[in-house]
Amino acid sequence: MFYLTGRFEGSGSVMRFQKRNARLRWFLKFNQMTNIRSYYQVEGEDYLYGCGDYFRNEEAMASDMSKAQFSAAFFKLDNEGEVRWYIEAAGVNPGAQDLDQDRCMGISFDTTSRKVSILLQAKMKELRYHEPGDFYDTVLAILDESGSIEKGVSISNSYIKFDMYSANQGLMQLGDAYYFAGWSKGYKTRMQTLDKKD
Known about the structure:
single chain; mainly beta; 4-stranded antiparallel sheet; 1 helix; globular
């Protein structure tokens, strides 16, 4: 099997092709998903996990992306294109007058624990009730195979404007460790050259 995931005709879409002749076997388009930003195919099993976001006001997206509101979305498919579950996650921007903007930037699956991990980039007052503002927080959540959340952690820092815009396929799991990255506006690093005698 091989899959093509992404966006087609304005919607998050998955296509499955035959490997031997590249013919399309089936095509799935999510009506309430705009982009698929990350996916994980479970090797040797019949499931594909994916996540991304859903633009809730398409008219703003067409005219001015800065006014778009979106929520995070994630799903589980079987190899025949049947949706086993679909979840949309959205919060209220703690910046009061600012737009709701939540995205799922990474998804992974651990074959040992049978757990799904998702990485959200979120603007949610439910997470940021101290020092509210129009900032992204990072949320790592662990789900079971049925899509139920078992635990999660939010990583918040009011002083660092961190986001993961460039981090599609942005989560990697190795054993019990999770790796992800992004970028922060307004910070820079300085290199210092040392003399050889130092």
